[in-house]
Design a protein that fits this description.
With 159 residues, this protein is α/β, with parallel strands linked by helices. The mean pLDDT is 90. The protein has one domain: 3-Layer(aba) Sandwich (Rossmann fold), CATH 3.40.50.
């Protein structure tokens, strides 16, 4: 069975993420969407459970997509899940440069390959999305409607 993992923090889950998930799901028998803990990021706007619930709702039409929370190293999680390939979306050449180094390290350590999928125009950074949201900007071009509402509500609660 060809099984892939698309891991990220997904804070918040964006249309760019969803695009990569759906495109990758057509290439593999099974796709795990893994919500990873990023120790470099201190604050999250949505909890892990909120991100998981949103991603499950957005992908519930595809029975071979499973959403899980990752604790520990992504590669260790991948090996435990029987994953053959890591999926990485890339928005720019600088993304590719950074992701390529990680792919080399992952392959050297675990033998797991990485497949890069170019993002479409909907893919902007979560940092920019949070900045736009903090000013009340409409985000329908970048976020699923349910996520946009949750994000705006959360930011209003924090003000």
């Amino acid at each position: 069975m060809r099984k892939a993992l698309f891991a990220g923090t997904f804070d918040p889950p964006t249309l760019g993420h969803l695009d990569i998930i759906l495109r990758a799901s057509r290439l593999f028998d099974a796709l795990v969407v893994g919500i990873a803990k990023n120790t470099a990021k201190n604050t999250f706007i949505l909890s892990e459970d909120e991100r998981k619930a949103a991603l499950q709702e957005l992908t519930n039409h595809s029975p071979h997509i499973e959403v899980k929370i990752i604790s520990g190293l992504v590669t260790e999680f991948a090996k435990g899940e029987g994953v053959n390939v890591l999926i990485r979306g890339v928005r720019s050449s600088s993304d590719l440069e950074n992701e390529q180094q990680m792919a080399w390290a992952n392959r050297a350590i675990t033998g797991i390959e990485t497949l890069f999928i170019p993002s479409d125009q909907k893919a902007i950074s979560s940092t920019l999305i949070k900045e736009l949201a903090s000013h009340g900007a409409p985000l329908k071009s970048f976020l699923p409607e349910m996520v946009e509402k949750k994000l705006h509500n959360r930011i209003q609660q924090e003000k």
